[in-house]
Amino acid sequence: MKSIDAWVADIRARVAGSPGVIALVGPTASGKTALALALAEAAGGEVVSVDSVQVYRHFDIGSGKPSSEELARVPHHLISAFDPGDAVDAALVAARARAAVEDIESRGRLPIVCGGTFLWHKAIFSGLASLPPGDAEVRERHRLIVVDEGREALHARLRAIDPVSAARLHPRDVVRVSRALEVHELSGSTMTELVKDHGFRSTWRPARYFAIRQPSEVLTARIEARVHAFIAQGWIDEVRDLIARGYGGARPMASVGYREVRAHLAGELSEAELLIAVVRSTRIFARRQRTWLNHEPVTWLEAPPP
Fold this sequence. Notes:
Elements: H1 4-15, E1 21-25, H2 32-43, E2 45-49, H3 68-73, E3 76-77, H4 90-106, E4 110-114, H5 118-126, H6 136-149, H7 151-161, H8 163-168, H9 174-187, H10 191-198, E5 207-213, H11 216-232, H12 235-244, H13 258-265, H14 271-293, E6 298-302
Parallel strand pairs: 1-4, 1-5, 2-3, 2-4, 5-6
């Protein structure tokens, strides 16, 4: 049976003597954090996090942020690097991650880039398409559409002009849906077209991608256990505190799980409904992550049978 130790040995054997950075990707709850810790300890490495919520301060429980004990075991970079109100995008994360990788390498350590936000991985290693800067007037117009007609209406507008981006983005992810619409309105091209034209053809560093392939039923069970654990650890109180501190409209609050807890606190979901909604949203998100990786040069580490 495969174990984390066996995966660590497998990865080290595959990358021995070859240049590049190790990147751990894959669906949420598949086991990336545990593997990153074990690999870093075995190979003298440090972890660079590219998780779209773990990079924010105060969003701790629901993001599955490494515990204080785990952070003490292995040096981590970009964990809690930004305030929830900061304007964080792939370009900014890529710049910070590259700087971290170079720092780690300069000290003779192994950089391990870990996280499920694959676009950020691509931005780090292959650069980004040139996109128009944000426009406050366009974003305000989109905000008013959401207020007047609802989030689904904004998503429907994106689906009409860029169905590929619409399929990738959840209707509740208003920030990213608005950005995709904004790109089209300002450039005349869809986000999908611009990214395809760019093709991620440049290379900053060669990267070896690894992901754990959990059987569907196992991943579902892991997701359910994770959600129950987060609730038991005080996730609802964490979100209540974040809202009280003025972060109810912050970008990470629109992420999977946090938006459902916010809805629960607003009286839109009972606690029983909350658990079901978070598990469902997380499963959909994990399925999208797997779909994206199916077309990428990823080495899949097979999980042991349940």
